[in-house]
Amino acid sequence: MLLDARTRHFLVHRVLPDAATEPSGHVTGRRVQLWRKYSLMDRRWRSVPLLAYYLYEVAIGSLLEWQMRRKGHLIPPRPTTRLQ
């Protein structure tokens, strides 16, 4: 046995995609992808650079969007999805 019961339950029910509801090739939202990547990391210290990089990318993206809106470019609103 490679994983204890608690870890296996967490991975099966919270991290890994369900083959019945998410067919192969299905594109999930970025938030779900990051959650899965974060949960599968083997060392917690590796999550710090992932978080820092994600925050950096969000800040740069928000700045660029703000500049484009300030110049008068029409940018459609971001789509919102809800996890079930």
How would you characterize the overall build of this protein?
By secondary structure, the chain is mainly alpha-helical. It has two domains: 1-29, no CATH class; 41-72. Helices cover 55% and strands 0% of the residues. It is built from three helices and no strands. The longest helix is centred in the C-terminal third of the chain and has 24 residues, at 47-70. The model has no long low-confidence stretch (mean pLDDT 79).
Number of strands: 0
Rg result = 17 Å
Uncertain runs are none
The helical percent reads: 40-55%
Strand content: under 5%
Shape: elongated
Average of per-residue pLDDT values:
79
What's a quick, concise take on this entry?
With about 80 residues, this protein is mainly α. Helices cover about 55% and strands about 0% of the residues.
Write the layout of secondary structure elements.
Layout: H1 5-15, H2 30-40, H3 47-70
Q: Which descriptors would you attach to this protein?
A:
mainly alpha, 2 domains, 84 residues, elongated
